[in-house]
Amino acid sequence: MRRLRGIFKRSSFFYSIFIPIAVIGTALITGFGFYTYNETYQKIQSNLIVDRQIYVNQVKGNLEQKIQTIEFLFTNYSNTNSFKELINQPLDHRNFMEVREVSSELAYFGVMGVNNATYQLISLSQGWEINNGSLNQLSDDEIDELYSTIEKSNRYLTWTPEQNEMKMLMLLPTFSRERSAIGVANISKRSIDRLVQDSDDNFYMIFNQDDQILYTNNGEKLDNDLKKTIMTADDKEGFVKAENGDIYIYSQSDYNQWIYISRLSEDKVRSSVLDLEIGLVLIIALLLILFITITYIVSNTASQPMKKIRDLLAVDPSAVGRKAEIDQILLGIDTIVEENTDLSLKLNHQKPELENLFQLNLFRGRVSTDELAEKLAQFDYQIADDERFVVMTIQIDDLGGREQSTIDIFLLAIENLVSELIPEKHRFRPIVLNQNTQATILRLTSAMNRKQIITYCESIQSAARQYLKIKISFGISDIYSDLTNSKLAVDNAKEALHFRINLGQESMIFFDEIVSQLDEKSVIKYPKEAEQELLDAMRSEEVSIVQSHFTKVFDLIVKENHNPLTIRNAILRLMNSIIQLGQLLGADYDVLQNSQNLYLEVLNKDNLFEIKELLLHGLIIPIVETIQNVTDREMKNLSDKVTVLVHKQYDQDISLESIADQLHYNSNYLSSVFKKEMGLNFADYLQNYRLMIAKEWLIQTKMTIKEISERLQYNNPQNFIRFFKKKEGLTPGEYRKQNKR
Predict the structure, then answer these.
(1) Does pLDDT of 723 surpass 70?
(2) SS (H, E, C) 230-261
(3) Over the stretch 435-457, which tens digit does the pLDDT of each residue have?
(4) Global pTM?
(5) Within 13 Å of residue 239, how many CA atoms lie on the same side as its CB?
């Protein structure tokens, strides 16, 4: 009871420490709990799906391995001499040695293949079957049924569902055109159950390539809509969510195209979330108890000196009491010194990371003038009053054919090159600024000038080319004297790097050399006439001509614009015009759909050659090819319409202009289309067709030559006779006599 009264009987100094810390700590721990719950909740379902996908693939792999073993055993056996000699022989009860040999081989299959599976060998030519050590003669109906099953599948290997088992029929010999036997394997449902027995949901289903259910472990059927979605999915593995919240995970085999399906029930997800809630509540409760306990101990310890002073004032202490107090103080000092020593060791280990963080904060403008001196002293930088600085940024132009994902490794390698090739007294610690850029603050002492900077850049560039097999470019800021201006300097150095789009790979660009060009940002010089020539060419010209016009437009953009921003904006404007033309002329949907990715790639590239090739082969040529296909179809259809009208109206006063009016086309355009498709102009085609009709009438009718010429719209019969003789080499009358029947 005295101890309890002592706990509640505390000084105001104790509560002034305990209550604020307890309130703040409780708020922080509770907030941390809610934050952790929200973050973890989002990941639980995806993690469960990943686990179930692994489980599905594990079962798939185990079953495939066993199935492949069975196929391998039958294949090897079918190519042995003993099999070839046996399979076409008639067997009966006298051939017990041969039956025994086959039974022994099938028993070996049972050892090497799937446990509890049965194996049979059937001779189609002789009509016998060996199964479980016995020889059976098959009836004609049984053999016909086997042939029917094989012909339906149209494959040498067929898996079909049977009652409580999966059945394999394999034509033998495997590598022969003449297959006279069947290998049969029956895998029981119980054998497959053992492969899927770890399933939490007790649901697993296997479909063969004919969408038949080969196996289901609990007799459930899959919803038709779900089944259709899974069977027609483009991805070979993934998941589908049902209306009731259950998730069906599937994986298609590359080996035999079977589809394996398992289920993650909504109840499983809910139970996992419930575990999270209970766990977080317990953890938060434990943390609160621990924190309150520690807060109590700290507050009590902090208030002890005040309590001792109060006690000393109330009671005259003895010499022993004072000595005990001094010993306690000295002991506390020793403890603090030891803790500070441990902390110093930890800080020394973390110094490189802290230095990187310091420089990142410099580049982001987050270091104040007051903090700067303290941080420089902390990292042993002695800065002279007259010292100046520049920021050197490095970006990779060419990874030498390697994957873009390796860029992080090469940025770290460049960081090491900078550390080795530039003396420590002339630089700060090199750091990786972001996923594309390495940055270093160079210290311009009296011994280091612009020429020395160029020398350092060239040596780093050469080492990167020689040892790393990559190409790099440099952007160098203006000189500045106040390190708090490092943010502006690094921005200028990165801006300088954008001018690689003008200079190409392995450039070395000083900001002061390009600053005058930055004033031209708002002025975009765009070759409108050359663009129109390109668009006109894309409508009707060949790819080679379109490519020539595109090269002209692209070169004019680069030549007339000197700022990377104006060049990029002009290129994007050209892309917009090309895409709009493609949409207008009905270009392929996939080509236009890919334009968004092309925009991003153009924005992220500073290499003009790569941008040019990307636009030509990723946008222009695909659009031209699809436009030409559409145009060719339209022209062919239009020519057919013209010929149909000629065949109907040949005995009328028709012309290209009258047909153009009927079809609602321009006569000049119609003439060019007709000549391109038919190989001759409209007038020649009309005359030739009328000549063909005249020849038929001369032979098949008794119409006079004058009547024929009038019906064929000749104003003068003599004109008709001259034209006929010119084409046929004889007059209409001579032609009639020569061909009269």
Answers:
(1) yes
(2) HHCCCCCEEEEECCCCCEEEEEECCCCCCEEE
(3) 889 999 998 876 677 888 888 89
(4) 0.39
(5) 23
Closest CA to 627 of 573, 579, 676: 579
pLDDT in tens, 292-304: 888 888 877 776 6
3-state secondary structure 82-130: HHHHHHCCCCCCCCHHHHHHHHHHHHHHHHHCCCCCEEEEEECCCCEEE
Task: Point out which residues pair with 510 in neighbouring strands.
Answer: 476
247-252 and 237-241 strand pairing:
antiparallel
State which H helix or E strand residue 694 sits in.
helix 682-700
Q: Which two tokens stand for residue 482?
A: 């106040």
Beta bridge partners of 508: 474
Q: Which two tokens stand for residue 582?
A: 């493609």
Task: Judge whether residue 563 has pLDDT over 80.
Answer: no
The set of residues, in sequence order, having a beta carbon less than 8 Å from that of 551 and lying 6+ positions away, is 612
Q: Tell me the average pLDDT across 468-481.
A: 90
Block residue for tokens 């003439």: 671
How far apart are alpha carbons 682 and 325 in whole angstroms?
A: 121
Residue 393 has pLDDT above 90, yes or no: yes
**Cα 653 to Cα 109: distance, rounded to the nearest angstrom:** 88
The pLDDT-based confidence of 418 (bands split at 50, 70, 90) is very high
Q: What is the pLDDT of residue 343?
A: 66
Q: Which position has the higher pLDDT, 605 or 370? A: 370
DSSP notation for 365-402: T---HHHHHHHHHHTT----TT-EEEEEEEEEEE-TT-
Tell me which residue of 700, 693, 691 sits closest to 726, measured CA to CA: 691
- Alpha carbon 169 to its chain centroid, in Å, reads 40
Pure H helices in 315-350: 319-349
Stretch 6-32: mean pLDDT, rounded? 73
Tokens of 130: 């060996």
pLDDT at position 425, please?
Answer: 85
The pLDDT confidence band at residue 88, using thresholds 50, 70 and 90, is confident
Can you give the pLDDT at residue 108?
83
d(CA 741, CA 736): 9
C-alpha to C-alpha distance for 650 and 685, rounded to whole angstroms:
11
Adjacent-strand bridge partners of 240: 248
Q: How confident is the model at residue 67 (pLDDT cuts 50, 70, 90)?
A: confident
Longest pairwise C-alpha distance within the chain? 159
Q: Measured between alpha carbons, how far is 99 from 95 in angstroms, rounded to an integer?
A: 6
> Are 590 and 613 contacting, i.e. CB atoms less than 8 angstroms apart?
no
Please give the pLDDT value at position 317. Answer: 40
428: three-class secondary structure by DSSP: coil
- How many CB atoms lie under 10 A from the CB of residue 661? 11
Q: Which of 479, 480, 472 is nearest to 508 (CA)?
A: 472
Mean of the per-residue pLDDT values of the chain:
80
d(CA 204, CA 209): 17
- The DSSP line for 455-480 is HHHHHHHHHIIIII--EEEEEE---B
Distance (Å, whole) CA 266 – CA 171:
44
Q: Given the DSSP bridges, would you call strands 259-264 and 388-398 parallel, antiparallel or unpaired?
A: unpaired
Q: How many other CB atoms are there within 10 angstroms of residue 438's CB atom?
A: 24
Tokens of 260: 């394996």
Q: How far is CA 718 from the centre of its chain?
A: 76
* Cis preceding linkage at 173, omega within 30: yes
Contact 90, 126 (CB under 8 A): yes
Q: What is the pLDDT of residue 209?
A: 82
**What's the CA gap between 655 and 420, in Å, rounded?**
85
Q: How far apart are CA 480 and CA 342, in angstroms?
A: 39
**How are beta strands 388-398 and 437-444 bridged, if at all?**
antiparallel
- What is the arithmetic mean of pLDDT over 619-623? 82
| 471-476 and 508-510 strand pairing | parallel
The pLDDT of residue 329 is 46
Three-class secondary structure of residue 265 per DSSP: coil
